[in-house]
Amino acid sequence: MGKVTIKDVARASGVSKGTVDRVLHGREGVSRKSREKILRVIEELGYEPNVYASLLASGIVRSIAVILPEYTPGEFWGLYESGIAKAASEAARLNVEVVRVAYNQYDIDSFRAACREALAKQPAGVVIAPLFQAETALFTAELRSKGIPYVFVDTKIEEDGYLSSYGMPMYRGGYLCADILSYRRPCEEILIVRIERDKLRQSDPTVGRREGFRDFIRENLPDCTVHNVFIDPKDPEGVALRLGKFFREHPGVRHIATFNSRIHLIVPFLEQNGLQDLTVVGFDNLPANLDALRSGVVNALITQHPEEQAARAIQDLTEFIVLKKSPAQRDNFVHMDILTRYNAD
Amino acid sequence: MGKVTIKDVARASGVSKGTVDRVLHGREGVSRKSREKILRVIEELGYEPNVYASLLASGIVRSIAVILPEYTPGEFWGLYESGIAKAASEAARLNVEVVRVAYNQYDIDSFRAACREALAKQPAGVVIAPLFQAETALFTAELRSKGIPYVFVDTKIEEDGYLSSYGMPMYRGGYLCADILSYRRPCEEILIVRIERDKLRQSDPTVGRREGFRDFIRENLPDCTVHNVFIDPKDPEGVALRLGKFFREHPGVRHIATFNSRIHLIVPFLEQNGLQDLTVVGFDNLPANLDALRSGVVNALITQHPEEQAARAIQDLTEFIVLKKSPAQRDNFVHMDILTRYNAD
DNA sequence: GTGAAAGCGCTAACAT
DNA sequence: ATGTTAGCGCTTTCAC
Fold first, then answer.
1. CA nearest B70: which of B29, B107, B26?
2. The dihedral formed by the CA atoms of A35, A40, A45 and A51, expressed in degrees to the nearest 10
3. Nearest nucleotide by C1' position to the B33 CA atom
4. What is the spatial distance, in angstroms and rounded to an integer, between the CA atom of A322 and the C1' atom of C4?
5. Residue A85 near chain B (CB below 8 Å)
6. Order of all β-strands in the sheet with B96-103
7. Which residues are CB-contacts of A230 (< 8 A; sequence separation ≥ 6)?
8. Which tens digits make up the pLDDT trace of A109-140?
């Protein structure tokens, strides 16, 4: 059972292992007669090749291109790294290497260039965070035409050719955010802090959260007013100025949320102005966010698990590429965790 | 990166591969000095052993015991076979063999004996369908004390030591069954056909379905009467007699369901008595059930995917045993499919 | 066309 | 206590 080797096939066919290998890989230079005989024997004996031994001997290395936004240390996209590293070392055992391609998430040309660059590496598979939807659709069409499998992380786009997808349910995340925010005390006004530059991006990944948030408010706190303030991450002074102005005009606001990972950006302002009696909720376990959680400035963080997304994306691709095994589940929503200062560690 | 081999470690340590292998496996006969040097080099070089090469060379074979109820051809538990076979051939590539242990699902002593038998095979892992709950708890406690991982299929028991579990959401299945049954036309009376002998079993796996069914009726068809008829699968004539009696007493009944896989047992009776204008719903895609679906006697089947459960259970165990990889998800509910004559094939 | 031989990373039996 | 060797199942040169 399953223990038939190439040697057995060779012996039973009256040829050498080399010849069997040739027909196994459909290579030239085997007589019609031998080929047929060998094929018959394979059938009879129920021979199945051992992928692992094959990989070991051939040394064929395939690569998976991982296309993600570039980041500076401490930013959201950096959270994927540990998962990528872990999965990469597993994949290495199967002769699959992981190559990184980064793009500027605010520059579509950079995204296009990243796609070209990835393709140039002749990957056997691609992991991609599709921040530019239309552009991604063009790229995946090309991947499909080349027969290259791909998986989405962070979000997916509406199409049907991907191997699997990993992401967080955005709408529910926003809904949950509103729930947590209003849980501790009644809220009549909420401040949403948003990123100025996100307006530039074709697809703002936080729209789903915004909708979920809005629906929760509509259903549960119809009298609550939601304010927006836009800030620029690169301009800390500007952040302080805008928030200062806002709180002078709206001194009664006691609830703040962000729909992105940047809640930490407002921490200095809150600390410097002694604004302690607030309820502050954000997303993602960036080191800076966790610090703010521990110090009590931020009350709760909703986290997805980017490292898990990355690891499983790479794993799915690796297994598909070398073992031809399809993932157990195609669309995967990672679970959300709610972190407070009491379970931050 | 990840490409450091035992040879590299040997060279850098100034010893032979053999010695490196010895420390890698904590075997005797290495000088303190060499051991420390080698350990240091392993650390520095970031050496990680290649499991696949190791397996290939050692030829160590581990086994997984699969403990399921025995069955005769065409019965429910036979549906697991194809999944077991498939997973077994995959596992074989990793030197894991699957051994079967069967028990009589109506005889607790037989179940106990099966557990003993499985244990005697010194398995590296166990797959089990826990039809006897209390008895299973005792067995898994023993597995835990021996450090043997196990996974549940079909149902799980309430404890916390299993590696993963696969099953169908019983309650929802029953709820769905009632929905489908009452979909086509109003129903005032329903006949549930049950198995006489299931009373004997300590845990009837269909109770969950019965509850879901009952709740649907209560919520949506409060005026509907539910009848029960008990039959003995081994006594076809008795089946006909009991059903005949029932329909003489309740000629208005137009809806029939089972909560187990045995809907096919009532097909001969329905055919022989020309009872065509009924709505009949059952569970599981047994060959006999599919035939009844195609011929129109049964209107719908709700199917779980036993073969998928088995395959994934074995896969989880194999990966855990040889690669130390934990399953992506611990509790898994397989999806339910609704089969009618139009999508039976 | 085909066989023989070496080698992939690792293990295990046998030397020394 | 350590090195050498053969071999796991398969691939890949290199002969013939």
1. B107
2. 40
3. D1
4. 29
5. no
6. B96-103, B62-69, B125-128, B150-154, B164-167, B331-333
7. A194, A195, A196, A199, A242
8. 999 999 999 999 999 999 999 999 999 999 99
Sheet containing strand A300-303, edge to edge, reads A225-231, A189-195, A255-258, A279-283, A300-303, A337-339
Distance CA B239, CA B330 (A): 41
Number of C-beta neighbours around residue A197 at 10 A: 14
Test mutation, B52, B90, B307, B312, chain A, max A CBs within 10 A: B52
Low-confidence ranges of chain A (pLDDT < 50): none
CA→C1' distance for A317 and D8 (Å): 28
Give residue B49's Cα distance to chain centre.
Answer: 34
Task: List, for residues B177-223, the tens digit of each pLDDT value.
Answer: 999 999 877 889 999 999 988 777 666 778 899 999 999 999 999 99
- Sequence letter at residue A248: R
Contact B97, B64 (CB under 8 A): yes
How many interface pairs between A and B have CB atoms less than 8 angstroms apart?
45
Q: Distance between CA B179 and CA A278 in Å, rounded? A: 48
Q: Are A230 and A200 in contact (CB under 8 A)?
A: no
Among A50, A60, A319, A331, most B C-beta atoms within 10 A, so best to mutate, is A50
**Chain A closest-CA separation from residue B304 CA (Å):** 15
Residue among A293, A251, A257 nearest A179 (CA): A257
The interface residues of chain B toward chain A in range 304-343, judged by CB-CB distance below 8 A, are 312, 325, 328
Cα of B173 to nearest chain A Cα, Å: 20
Cβ separation B53–A56 shorter than 8 A = yes
Residue whose tokens read 């540990």: A82
Distance measured from the CA of protein residue B23 to the C1' of nucleotide D1, in angstroms: 12
pLDDT, tens only, A287-337: 999 999 999 999 999 998 999 999 999 999 999 999 999 998 999 998 899
pTM of the predicted model over 0.85: yes
How would you class A345 by CB atoms within 10 Å of its CB: exposed for 0-12, middle for 13-18, buried for 19 or more?
exposed
Buried/exposed B236-258: b ≥16 CB within 10 Å, e otherwise: eeebbebbeebbeeeeebbbbbb
Helix (H) or strand (E) holding B62: strand B62-69
Distance CA B83, CA B70 (A): 16
Distance of alpha carbon B220 from alpha carbon B321, whole angstroms: 48
Start-to-end Cα distance in chain B:
49
- Partners of residue A62 on adjacent β-strands: A96
Q: Is A92–B3 a contact, with Cβ atoms under 8 angstroms apart?
A: yes
Please state, as a whole number, how many other Cβ atoms lie within 10 Å of the Cβ of residue B331. 12
In angstroms, rounded to a whole number, what is the distance separating the alpha carbons of residues B75 and B71?
A: 6
Distances, alpha carbon B56 to alpha carbons B60, B122, B125, in Å = 8, 21, 20
